[in-house]
Amino acid sequence: MSKKVTENGTGITRRDFINRSAAGTAVVVLDPVSAFFTGGNDGKIAWPANALDFRFHMIGHAHIDPVWLWPWSEGLSVIHSTFRAALDRMNETPDFTFVASSAQFYEWVAENDPEMLDEIRQRVKEGRWNIVGGWWVEPDVNIPDGEAMVRQGLYGQKTFERLLGQKATIAFNPDSFGHAGTLPQILNLQGMKHYVFMRPGPHEKNIPADLFWWEGTDGSRVLTYRIPISYNETKPVDNRVERILERFQNQPMKSFMAYYGAGDHGGGATKENIRSIEALKNDSAAPKVFFSTMDKYFEEVEKQNLDLPTVKDDLQHHAQGCYTAEIEIKKGNRQSEAALVTAEKMAAIGKVAWRANYPKHEFTTAWQRVLFLQFHDSLAGTSLPEHSQTAREGYGYALDTAHQSIIKNIQKLEWQISSEDPESEYLVVFNPHTWETRQTIEYDFNWSDRRAASRVEDEKGNPLPHQWAAGTTETGSRKTLITEVELPPFGYRQIRLMDAKTPPVEKGVQAQNNTLENEFYKIRFSKNGEIGILDKQTGNEVFSGGEGGCKALVINDPSDTWSHDVKAFSEEIGAFGNAKIRVLREGPVKGVVRVETSYGDSTLTIDWALSKGSRNIEASVSLNWHERLKMLKFSFPVNVETPEATYEVPYGHIVREANGDENPGLRWIDVAGKQNGNTYGLSVINDAKYGYSVNGSDIRISVARAAVFAHHNPKKLNLENSYQWMDQGIHTFRLLLVPHNNSWKESRIARITEEFMAAPVCIYQGIHDGKLPKTGSFLSVDKPNVIVSSIKQAEDSDDIIFRCVETSGVSTAATLDIHFAQRTWKGNFRPCEIKTLRMKPGTGQIQEVNLLEEAG
């Protein structure tokens, strides 16, 4: 929950729009009403002469946070009591209407009170209970990836249809802390043509009107409404109508939605609300006021042929601290999304290609747990500390479900591949991507020092470069094999380890105390732990000033958990330093150098790695964080002029101004510009972070904050008190640095990111017979900018769903070669278009469907 907006009559200018209340909500403070309206001696509002020109759809509503300052178990009770109250108000007032979102809420009602669900179903049929939202919950829509947003609508709309007989047509997300500009396409493909939000408010985002066409990067549009004032109101509604009329007269429309009802902890429309609406109906000078629904509002304004502006942008910013707060939850979300997608891909194709198991119920349950944890006060990190344990359990369930499926299904595949020699060790390595990849893999074996030699080879007997390193344990002869293997598109290759000689590899990766080098880069480590990278191809430094890359900056951050009214985190108060540097690995395949630094009571360990033949620089990070009211940022000052900053967003990308402001992003960020007159840039990919800033050419990744759990201004902290501080202790994540001498699009950053997030799966083979070949490919796509982002079974059958996304913003003709079914599909993609295909396994028939897996 963030700034819950109610009303206050104090006379502060519009620039002083926000004032904090002691209740943990925020209060909209506007100029006094008397500047526009005058009151009579009887206390009634003296409406302006043109008041009758305006129509107010009064929307009975109860904003319900299933988690915020209470656990989800309490939220469950609040949902039940709020829905009961809404039904009671309907029984008392024949034309009273109510709107409610979140399929998860109705699923809980169906489980706990089926009789209540029957009542709701009847009111839905009457048109008095308006189903809106279409999603599993009202999620954060900056942090989930594109596929998670697809699943929000897929499971949400299917649940509404199953329980209530209809789907939502209006997307509703009033309290989310910003909205990605790729949403219009996703909403359209989920059957929703309208969107309603509230944050960012007018003081945070200037838009030409509060009813507008919101256009996504692919050209999709949704008619969008920004809620004026607030979605909560417990008092008589006169004041709400009065303020909307005062503040929003200069709009292209004369019809408004005014929301009323107790919210946050539920409650809904009060009897006082309803009495005041009935009284306004009888006020002959007042605007036209009536009980209504969001569906009726949009039906009305669509008929009016209004001249509405178009907004082609994301809707930001609100609560920038939420991109980084509660980093364990952030990492759990990213890891769960990636694992479930990989598991579904392997199971869906594996079921047809090698008789694997597709645990549909388990996948659905795991996804729904993750989707619930994407509720904005959960994923944003603004809930109470007890909820963090709920999140750990939910992500653990999702990850276990995914990993169990992956291992069991690849084991079923390897059992069908022969491994004949009892004196050898065998691995089957599976590539979950629809293009050929060259990967460095690591696997621990029992391999005695008494063996004369070791040889790794592919299925044709070709030797593969390899080296040995210390194992993850110190028992017996356990060692880590590091080798390099080429893998076919969405397919596998068997590799064999034997006691035999192998040809030497020339010029592998050299690692010394303060340098790490392969054929493309020479990395230098400074005494403060920063790095310099010489790009041998250009002869230039990647970072401005040489050894200034990955500087671990400590930023003063006295803001609350949301970082209300903070645009940028830029007050540097220190940096990690006093580096200890040592070589961990060196050899023909991979070199690793460890850099340990410290600041205050915190320590930072980064293992920098280079592989032979790779232009990607890996970093495994372990942070032991014990600071308070501070932020940690990694700085990467790219050595370019005229920089342009591009961020990955859900199923798309966006270019933003490089002004130092904090922005949300997903897995990668890129800065590119000119270096000696030529195009050059750096992409930084990560597996756990969402907060970024770019000032000029300096990429900064927000690594950690240190706020008190759910601390909300104006509550003041007394640092002598004992608080529960967020993000303390050990946290791990990974980075991948990709310098490039062309654009990020030409460097295939989207593909590299997919490979980074979903590594090849290695499984050990025993000795057995088998009929499958020792290498094979099941699926491929021919264009590097088209990603097959999801493969799953359809919700209503065993049909196979393929989701494909154009990632570079260019029109593309692509071919999907479905080897396992002897089928080929060809199609044309608009820039950034999402296409979903549905294939019948028996006949191979393929048709294009929407995100609800339905034909048009």
Summarize the structure.
Pfam families: Alpha-mann_mid, Glyco_hydro38C2, Glyco_hydro_38C, Glyco_hydro_38N. This protein is 21% helix and 33% strand.
Verbal overview:
It comes from Mariniphaga sediminis. Keywords: Glycosidase, Hydrolase, Metal-binding. Residues 317-395 form the Glycoside hydrolase family 38 central domain. One of its GO terms (biological process) is oligosaccharide catabolic process. The chain is an alpha+beta fold and 856 residues long. The chain folds into 4 domains: 46-317, 7-stranded beta/alpha barrel (Alpha-Beta Barrel); 425-502, Immunoglobulin-like; 510-757, Beta-galactosidase, Chain A, domain 5 (Distorted Sandwich); 779-856. Helix content is 21%, strand content 33%. The strands form 12 sheets. It has a 9-stranded antiparallel sheet with strand order 29-30-31-32-41-38-37-34-35. Strands 28-27-33-40-39-36 form a 6-stranded antiparallel sheet, with no helix packed on it. Strands 9-10-12-11-15 form a 5-stranded mixed sheet. Strand 25 (531-535) and strand 26 form a beta hairpin. Helix 4 (146-164) crosses helix 10.
